[in-house]
Amino acid sequence: MDIFQEHLRIDIEKKVGFKINTTTDVKALLAILQEHTSDPISLSTLRRFWNLLPMRKSNNSTLDVLAKFLEYASYQDYVKKKNEYEKWLLDAKVQKLKLKETLDKEDFEFLSAVIEKSESNTIFISLFEYAFYNEKLDYCTALFDENNISCFKNKLPINHFQTNIAYILFIFLYGISKESFVNNIGKLVANKNFRENVIYIYIDIMGLNKRYGIILEKIEQESLSYEEQLFLKLLSGLKQYLNKSKDLPVINNLTRNELQLLPEVLVGRFYGYQMLCAAQNQNKEKEEIVWNDFLFFIKKEMHIRQYFHEFVHALLLLKKIQKLNYLLENYFEEIIDKLHMHSYLDLFIYNLIDVMVSFKNKDLKRAHHIFKNLDTTISKYGAAYNDYYLIFYTITGYHLATNYKEKQLFKEEYQKHVGLAQFKVFDEVYLETYFG
User: Fold this and answer.
1) What is the per-residue DSSP string for 194-227?
2) In whole angstroms, what is the distance from residue 163 CA to residue 177 CA?
3) If you average pLDDT over every residue of the chain, what do you get?
4) CA separation, residue 45 to residues 16, 17, 71 (Å)
5) Which helix (H) or strand (E) holds 115?
6) Residue 93, exposed/middle/buried by CB under 10 A (0-12, 13-18, 19+)?
7) What digits encode the pLDDT tens for the residues 193-230?
8) Where does the source fall among the domains of life (predicted)?
């Protein structure tokens, strides 16, 4: 396979959002292709193109179908735009954009077109960094305006470009000097588009006691919508819980109609926080009311995956293994559906829960088998919670350990992760008593 066909394969995987390694993956791709084109293409052709069957030279019609799926006129057009000369012209144009005080409509149309074709994080980030270091903060924040960059138009569901940009920008914000961070972060978060497309997408639990916590405090000084206010209250309450504060802020119950107006993730976070408050007040009756209210709420919802993430996080914190088991048994298919089957963090979390449940039920053989196959490199994938969930991985490994040396290694890993976060709740007692 020549270099451009390799690029074609990679670009298609980027667009559909998953790696194509198996026949199941190819079938999922074929279903997507059939929704976008009437041009014929077979399962066996796709399997050959992804080296799952003995390879032979791809014909032009196959290459054209795949190129058109990426919104090119033809495979020849795709190759032309991948050509190094075209790339040089693109780089030159981007450099010229850096010299401008502000970007105009034509500039943003160019940027939007480049991003939509290639999901180019590098170009976007290079413009932001150049403007930031040259103290052109209006230039910086204009990059996040949905009227300027089309990839930011649809707030939900969040696309790969948005999540990648948010993650990379947090690396940048954490890497600049303390003086530069303090002087500029207030000006950045004063812009609603920046908050929505960076701060509220990459939620850094591990950074609540550090720069992410400072960012949230700066946001509280702005004029905010009800949704933003609720988001900040819930994260502030979570931070206080993790730091073992005795009095958590009270957040009043919301009606079903009020909850339905909120994003799914925020609803899950609301119910999860109510569970934390009830547990801290040792109110078992309230815990059950919240639990049943949550189950009743999601019963009538079509897409429940987004409701679970924050709620599951609270159950893990509270060591509610049986409740986690209930969610695993009753909603696994909806959570790990075809669209999200390659979400590394989801797979990691629910496989880890499976290990916990198996351990609790004394099915040690199953627990050890699944635990051994967990992908502990999740932190490299850039999702906001990856490092945080490794705390629960090390707790589970500690209790599964079959000898003193292994136990100590997991304990050291646990201490390393909780040391970075500096949360008081994750002490040695928490580790020792997690499974009762």
Assistant:
1) HIIIIITTS--GGGTTTHHHHHHHHHTTS---HH
2) 24
3) 88
4) 18, 20, 20
5) helix 105-118
6) middle
7) 999 999 998 899 999 999 999 999 999 999 999 999 99
8) Bacteria
| Pair of tokens at residue 399 | 């209790």
Give me Rg for the CA atoms of the chain. 24
Q: Are 174 and 211 in contact (CB under 8 A)?
A: yes
Contact, 188 vs 140, CB < 8 A? Answer: yes
Joined tokens for residue 140: 């910086």
| Three-state secondary structure call for residue 18 | coil
Residue 197 CB: number of other CB atoms within 10 A? Answer: 25
Among 301, 374, 294, 289, smallest CA distance to 326 is for 294
Q: Is 292's pLDDT higher than 90?
A: yes
Candidates 284, 294, 210, 282; CA nearest to 248 is 282
Report which of 44, 38, 51, 43 is spatially closest to residue 9, judged by C-alpha positions: 51
Task: Record the tokens describing residue 365, joined without a space.
Answer: 């053989």
Are residues 142 and 135 in contact, defined by beta-carbon separation less than 8 angstroms? no
Amino acid residing at 22: T
Report the alpha-carbon distance of residue 297 to residue 91 in Å, rounded.
Answer: 50
